[in-house]
């Protein structure tokens, strides 16, 4: 147990419930492997209480003015900014990312709250000219009702923040199940909302065995909308459960982002920037640039420059301010990454740098660049979700797009070229929910975030982000 790490509890209908007689789950620091706390798991009774309180809170929360919801979310955003350093430390202890990244993430969550606070005030309906003389057709935008939200461990504050802020701004109560690996961060978000004056029952935060909790919540009649971020495999199960109850669902699932680097791009500069983006959060990012498809004329230069930049990364405990690459987040991750790397090497991939787990305590993986990876290797089709970059040469635009679009995923994509016509062609033909041209920064509260194909459906940013929590009701007056 670690005295610097926050105390953990469930939040059920405004009440903080500690372990009591409940089952508890260990929380580990991935930099050391040590158990730093025990997390109370929700009993069926806790889940039912959360459901009942969400259902009761739905009408009063819907009736709260958009302006009052806005003010509450803005207060919560300010609390998150003030608390960012302390939240960042807790995130690093439970998730491993460098503390500067973790602190910046808490500030980003505040920005997300600000954005959706404003969007709630702009959830306009409309008046449609009627076909009947003297008639009026009104379109009212109403909250869909209680939401069950499931979030992963890789961005333990911004991913829940997107879901919570949009749902709450729209007028929906939420039951959130953050990842059991990163409970303190999810609870810090909830605490900011409670301290900002969120009424009891509008938010509950529960933990437990993910499959059991999600099934119990989604099957309940109280829940009208489901939102999940995580792997495609789990997303499909969640989608089936939601479909059984004809419930709306937003799914942000896996990705395997291609990066198209054309001959006319500045290969060395792109390679250097790529390292910062690829190895952020130890590569455990659904939009991480991963398949580097590089045109033959700049291929060797790109690979050399990338390896050189990788050698500057400093791997270590994220609490050490000089660390730029933390551990993998969970003890199951090194074995998963190893299986993919070994398969690629067996199929002829060249290890340019890295390629293995680091010895010692914690779940560290050396930053890795594999070159000439066979497109048939598993790692070219399955998300490595770790600090592994893949380099593959291509001859022309058609081949690059064929490789880029070959997977069932379609989340983020990146292209680097000086040619406007080539950039235009890639924009039209790439199968992805997001494309960054000549840069690596894709995410902001103001822009849509979501995928196509098996990367999911729905969008969690921009003006689209609140849409999934509202439905349109027609009121037709004679
Ligand atoms: P996992 O699929 O077991 O868990 C991923 C997340 O989903 C965890 O937070 C977990 O609590 C949650 N989860 C699992 N089963 C669930 C269920 N039935 N109902 C509700 N939530 C459930 O895998 P993992 O070992 O933690 O990570 C493996 C893979 O998950 C990664 O390789 C990556 O592909 C994917 N992943 C994606 C994201 C993302 O941002 N899209 C985030 C984390 C993990």
**Strand order, biggest sheet?**
14-15-16-13-12-17-18
Named once each, the bound ligands are: nicotinamide-adenine-dinucleotide
Could you give the distance between the termini? 67 Å
Number of strands: 20
Mean pLDDT, to the nearest integer, reads: 97
Low-confidence stretches: none
* CATH architecture tag of the largest domain: 3-Layer(aba) Sandwich
Helical content stands at 25-40%
Tell me the number of structural domains.
2
Quickly name the level 1 CATH class of the largest domain: Alpha Beta
- Shape by Cα distribution: globular
- How much of the residues is beta strand, in percent? 15-25%
Q: So, the CATH homologous superfamily of the largest domain?
A: Aldehyde Dehydrogenase, Chain A, domain 1
Number of helices: 12
Which structural class do you get from the secondary structure elements? Answer: alpha/beta
Structure commentary:
The chain has 478 residues and is an alpha/beta fold. The chain folds into two domains: 10-253 and 455-477, Aldehyde Dehydrogenase, Chain A, domain 1 (3-Layer(aba) Sandwich), CATH 3.40.605.10; 257-444, Aldehyde Dehydrogenase, Chain A, domain 2 (3-Layer(aba) Sandwich), CATH 3.40.309.10. It has helices at residues 44-63, 66-95, 99-121, 158-170, 183-195, 210-219, 232-244, 267-279, 299-310, 332-346, 397-404, 420-429; strands spanning 10-12, 15-17, 24-28, 35-40, 126-129, 136-143, 147-150, 174-177, 203-205, 225-229, 248-252, 257-261, 289-295, 350-353, 368-371, 388-394, 412-416, 434-437, 456-457, 470-477. Helix 3 runs parallel beside helix 4 (158-170). The radius of gyration is 23 Å and the shape is globular. The mean pLDDT is 97. The protein binds nicotinamide-adenine-dinucleotide. The site of nicotinamide-adenine-dinucleotide (NAD) has 22 residues, from helix 6 and helix 7.
């Amino acid at each position: 147990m670690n005295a610097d790490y926050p105390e953990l509890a469930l939040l059920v209908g405004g009440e903080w419930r500690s372990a009591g007689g409940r089952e508890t789950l260990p929380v580990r620091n991935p930099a050391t492997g040590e158990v730093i706390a025990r997390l109370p798991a929700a009993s069926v009774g806790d889940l039912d209480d959360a459901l009942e309180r969400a259902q009761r809170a739905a009408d009063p929360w819907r009736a709260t003015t958009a302006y009052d919801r806005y003010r509450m979310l803005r207060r919560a955003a300010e609390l998150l900014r003030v608390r960012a350093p302390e939240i960042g430390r807790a995130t690093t202890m439970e998730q491993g990312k460098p503390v500067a990244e973790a602190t910046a993430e808490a500030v980003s969550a505040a920005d997300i709250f600000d954005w959706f606070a404003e969007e709630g005030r702009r959830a306009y309906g409309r008046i449609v000219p009627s076909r009947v003389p003297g008639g009026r057709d009104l379109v009212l935008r109403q909250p869909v009702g209680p939401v069950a939200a499931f979030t992963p461990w890789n961005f333990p504050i911004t991913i829940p923040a997107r879901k919570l802020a949009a749902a709450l701004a729209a007028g929906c109560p939420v039951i959130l199940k953050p990842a059991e690996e990163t409970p303190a961060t999810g609870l810090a978000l909830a605490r900011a909302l409670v301290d900002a004056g969120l009424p009891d029952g509008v938010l509950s935060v529960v933990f437990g065995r993910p499959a059991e909790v999600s099934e119990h919540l989604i099957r309940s009649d109280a829940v009208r909308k489901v939102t999940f971020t995580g792997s495609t495999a789990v997303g499909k199960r969640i989608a089936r459960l939601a479909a059984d109850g004809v419930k709306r669902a937003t799914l942000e699932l896996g990705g395997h982002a291609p990066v198209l680097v054309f001959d006319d791009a500045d290969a060395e500069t792109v390679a250097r920037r790529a390292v910062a983006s690829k190895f952020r959060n130890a590569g455990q990012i659904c939009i991480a640039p991963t398949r580097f498809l590089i045109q033959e004329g700049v291929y060797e230069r790109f690979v050399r420059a990338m390896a050189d930049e990788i050698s500057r990364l400093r791997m270590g405990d994220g609490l050490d301010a000089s660390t730029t690459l933390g551990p993998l987040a969970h003890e199951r991750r090194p074995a998963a990454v190893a299986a993919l790397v070994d398969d690629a090497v067996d199929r002829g991939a060249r290890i340019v740098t890295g390629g293995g787990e680091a010895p010692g305590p914690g779940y560290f993986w050396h930053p890795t660049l594999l070159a000439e990876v066979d497109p048939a290797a598993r790692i070219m089709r399955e998300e490595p979700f770790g600090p592994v970059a893949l380099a593959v040469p291509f001859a022309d635009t058609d081949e690059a797009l064929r490789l880029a679009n070959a997977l069932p995923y379609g989340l983020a994509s990146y292209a680097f070229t000086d040619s406007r016509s080539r950039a235009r062609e890639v924009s039209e033909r790439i199968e992805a929910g997001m494309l960054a041209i000549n840069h690596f920064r894709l995410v902001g509260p103001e822009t849509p975030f979501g995928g196509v194909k098996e990367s999911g459906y729905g969008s969690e940013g921009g003006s689209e982000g609140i849409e999934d929590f509202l439905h349109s009701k027609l009121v037709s007056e004679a």
